[in-house]
Specification:
Elements: H1 15-29, H2 41-48, H3 52-64, E1 68-71, E2 75-78, H4 92-98, E3 110-111, H5 122-136, H6 138-141, H7 150-160, E4 172-175, H8 177-189, E5 195-199, H9 204-212, E6 216-220, E7 222-223, E8 226-227, H10 229-239, E9 243-246, H11 260-273, E10 276-280, H12 294-297, E11 302-307, E12 319-322, H13 328-339, H14 344-355, H15 358-380, E13 386-387, E14 394-398, H16 405-414, E15 417-418, E16 420-421, E17 436-440, H17 447-462
Parallel strand pairs: 3-15, 5-6, 5-9, 9-10, 10-11
Antiparallel strand pairs: 1-2, 4-12, 7-8, 11-12, 13-14, 14-17, 16-17
Helix pairs in contact: 1-3, 2-3, 3-16, 5-14, 7-14, 8-9, 8-13, 10-11, 15-17
Length: 472
């Protein structure tokens, strides 16, 4: 084993990237010759004063570059240059914006890293609707969508309605899914350099997209009941954000749900400081949460977004945003500019799914299946600490010692299961460590595959970290 220690004070970017570059330089110079063993992750983390998750990300990166190979129970070794695979030579910007997921998911892995609606045969229903549209609207599907039919707005109005609140049709904008809706809102109501509030843990596909647009990300503290109003007020006083992206019900990944009185406070703070709100209700619409929507408490400044990806089918790319009065046209134009436009055939299919009642029926069927799968998770992972909801397709698992999030994710990958570590959901750099992973259970094709995946994870959890040093 080599006594080599890296110098992570040089270079720029996050520590894990500097460490990966230092390893690559040492290999290129011969300081780390072929066959030499990299220091165990725990030891190196202690020696240079960083978390083991940081080491894990760096080791994973040099592995992707084709420089090292991990051998379970033995460690991580430098490959001979002649034998090294070319790997994915991802540039630093791609790494910074891509999160911790593998860009191209490998085959033959159980996918516990995606929350798309499970395949329960709804493709046949969607196929029939698409065939009908093809027969009835040949000219429309062959051209750009320049005119939006009224049923597209009415479908969004129905899908977004909840708890005795329904938006007005003139405030609805159909979109290419909830993600596109959020990015359209951010683009329309903020400018480059503006600050956007995210919870420390959040759906970071949006926060990373916001950074691509030149917006700055700031984070607000949360607890088991969602964002803490006092910290939100502090941010508004000190940082003057333009907008906040929130998930009040069934938060991703923590599953926290904000109580009524806290929602009222958040709405009041946003109004007092002139902060726009994006309320992501993608998972909330699948629950029976009776708390009022932020959109009903602060309709003058809340953009409510949701779609069909989790409750009906991800492939139809259906979504809607309910805007404050007089904002719909701005969001519609911005959405077209950033997406290229809404395909008629998809928007019409989504509208028909909702207006016919079939989307609601599919959602009921999917929720029933998720209920069974969530119960399976409770049985297979009994004795471990996690948060789940019967209608939501993921759980938030607390890892026992000595596991850390990144190393557990790597171990699961080695054993054939893809999961998400906590870093995937960190909206900005933070020293906070949660020792948790998100396990999604909607994508396995069968309950047998689901059960096998859960048992693989259970064996790892019970192993006490054996083979720990071998994780790259």
């Amino acid at each position: 084993m080599t006594n080599w220690l890296p110098d992570v004070t040089r270079g720029s970017g996050p520590v894990y990237l500097r460490l990966a570059d230092s390893i690559e330089s040492a290999i290129a110079s011969g300081t780390l010759p072929a066959g030499s063993k990299l220091p165990p992750q725990r030891n190196l983390a202690y020696d240079i004063g960083v978390t083991i998750g940081t080491i894990g990300r760096a080791y994973a990166l040099v592995h992707e570059r084709g420089l090292v190979a991990g051998e379970v129970g033995r460690g991580t070794y430098v490959l001979d240059r002649a034998d090294a695979a070319p790997g994915n030579q991802a540039d630093p910007l791609t790494i910074a914006l891509g999160g911790t997921r593998t860009i191209d998911a490998p085959p033959n892995k159980v996918r516990f890293d995606t929350t798309a609606a499970p395949d329960l045969g709804q493709g046949k229903i969607i196929g029939r609707i698409l065939a009908e549209i093809g027969e009835q609207h040949l000219s429309e599907i062959s051209s750009y969508s320049r005119v939006f039919p009224k049923n597209w707005y009415e479908a969004g109005r129905r899908w977004l309605a909840r708890n005795d609140w329904m938006p007005e049709a003139e405030n609805i904008v159909p979109t290419l899914g909830a993600h596109a809706a959020a990015i359209a809102v951010i683009s329309a109501v903020s400018s480059p350099g503006d600050k956007i509030v995210f919870e420390t843990l959040s759906y970071t596909q949006v926060s990373r997209s916001a950074r691509i647009l030149g917006r700055r990300t700031i984070t607000v503290d949360s607890d088991e009941n969602g964002i803490i109003p006092e910290d939100f007020e502090r941010l508004c006083h000190q940082q003057h954000p333009k907008l906040a992206f929130l998930m009040p019900t069934a938060h991703n990944p923590t599953l926290a749900t904000m109580p009524h009185e806290r929602r009222v406070k958040v709405a009041e703070i946003a109004r007092r400081h002139g902060v726009w709100l994006i309320e992501d209700d993608l998972y909330g619409g699948m629950t029976s949460d009776e708390n009022p929507l932020l959109a009903s408490l602060a309709p003058d400044r809340t953009f409510l977004i949701s779609g069909l990806s989790k409750a009906v089918a991800a492939g139809v790319r259906g979504g809607w945003v309910a805007c404050p009065p007089h904002f719909a046209q701005r969001i519609k134009v911005t959405h077209k500019m950033i997406t290229g436009g809404l395909p008629f055939i998809l928007a019409e299919a989504c509208a028909r799914l909702v207006e016919s009642g079939q989307a609601h029926e599919i959602r009921k069927t999917i929720i029933a299946e998720l209920n069974i799968r969530e119960q399976m998770s409770r049985e297979k992972l009994n004795g471990f600490d996690f948060v789940s909801h019967p209608h939501v397709p993921f759980l938030w698992l607390k890892l026992p010692d000595p596991w850390l999030s990144g190393t557990f994710k790597n171990a699961a990958f080695r054993d054939g299961v893809l999961i998400d570590d906590e870093d995937e959901f960190k909206a900005a750099r933070t020293d906070k460590v949660y020792h948790r992973v998100r396990i999604s259970f909607s994508s396995p094709k069968s309950r047998e595959e689901l059960a096998a995946g859960f048992m693989t994870l259970r064996r790892l959890l019970e192993s006490g970290g054996s083979g720990y040093d071998g994780e790259i």
